[in-house]
Amino acid sequence: MPDALDFEQPLLELENRITALQAEDSPRARDEVARLEERLARLRQRTYAGLSAWQRTQLARHPRRPHARDLIRLLFTDFVELHGDRLYGDDAAIVGGLARFEERGVVVLGHQKGRDTREKLARNFGMPHPEGYRKALRLMALADKFGKPVITLVDTPGAYPGIGAEERGQAEAIAKNLRAMAALGVPLVAVVTGEGGSGGALAIGMGNRVLMLEYAVYSVISPEGCAAILWGDAGKAPEAAESMKITAPDLLRLGVIDAIVPEPLGGAHRDWEAAARHLREALRAELTALADKPREALVAQRYEKFRRIGAFEEASLPPPRAY
Q1: Residue of 289, 166, 217 lying closest to 61 (CA atoms)
Q2: What is the DSSP-derived secondary structure letter of residue 111?
Q3: Contacts of residue 162, Cβ cutoff 8 Å, sequence gap at least 6
Q4: What is the CA radius of gyration of the chain?
Q5: Closest residue by Cα to residue 246 from 203, 206, 197, 282
Q6: Which of 8, 134, 250, 299 has a CA-to-CA distance to 180 between 20 and 30 Å?
């Protein structure tokens, strides 16, 4: 188990015992391996069926989890990456371009976190600057112009909050993307593949259909940030995660997302190809369902979808006081 998490240690111990016994190659060892493998399978099922919100957050952040470029390679063909926002520069935290999904021309874009230290720094840990969102906006406008569906892969801790990003209009860039996506005349399918952090995620996530991988998380703030604000202690992140309802089952029940895409047992990082197969099936179904909808219907459906999120209560104002 590469990079096993704390709650996976019992599984790792069993796997190590099995590996050691396999090296003996004796009848007694083979019998013991069979018994341990059966026990391991049961333990895996029990462990991943009962994950807490914080454990799911750890899986969503796993360093070996497939990122946007990995999924693009596994799901699309003829990918041509496009760079720059035509205003300031090229933000490597957002990748995107033209591609084919099962012979259908699409525009695909997503957050890219990076693997090693050098790439993480170059990609700014998947936290886009304003020019990244303006690049995404340029790609969505291109899709609208040529009638191509848009697929977005959401995986970011959030938009970069640095001084330079604020000076270049971070909030305005996100707001413009929201306005543009609301009026987009082509199908938009958004998939939360890892972390869906705050406005940085929503800036490319306002889809006709919003999907989540099984162990992804989606929230207005990180559990650590929430804990620091509420209790002054980021160490209470597990408690915050549980209260925030950030997991895929919670968000499906609340109507924030439309469907959950299953992952291989143990998470997408254990089997990229299997995770991509599940996502391919989901994308195929969603694009087929949206393909024949006219522009006006797509815009109306997207509008109604996001208007339904949340609970509201109208109350009459008290009469003005007389003095």
Answers
A1: 217
A2: E
A3: 129
A4: 22
A5: 197
A6: 250
d(CA 116, CA 301): 41
The per-residue pLDDT for range 267-280, each reduced to its tens digit, is 999 899 999 999 99
Q: Which domains does the chain have, with CATH numbers?
A: 1-16+26-50 (no CATH), 57-307 (3.90.226.10)
Positions of E strands within 204-249: 209-213, 217-219
The confidence score (pLDDT) of residue 279 equals 97
The strand pair at 209-213 and 259-261 is best described as: parallel
Handedness of CA 45, 50, 56, 58 (dihedral sign): negative
Q: How many CB atoms lie within 10 A of CB 184?
A: 21
Q: Decide the pairing of beta strands 77-81 and 94-101.
A: antiparallel
- The sign of the CA dihedral 252, 258, 264, 270 is negative
CA 92 to CA 97: how far, in whole Å? Answer: 13
CB contact at 8 A, 280 and 75 = yes
User: Tens digits of per-residue pLDDT, 21-59?
Assistant: 777 777 877 788 888 888 888 888 888 888 999 999 999
38-64 in b/e form (b: 16+ CB < 10 A) is eebeeebeebbeebebbbbbbbbbbee
pTM listed for this prediction = 0.88
φ and ψ at 214, to 5 degrees? -55, -40
For the stretch 104-135, pLDDT in tens is: 999 999 999 999 999 999 999 999 999 999 99
pLDDT in the model for residue 188 = 97
The pLDDT, as a whole number, for residue 1 is 58
Using left for φ > 0, alpha for ψ between -120 and 50, and beta otherwise, residue 210 falls in beta
> Which residue numbers in the chain have pLDDT < 70?
1-2
**Which 3 state secondary structure label does DSSP give 108?**
strand
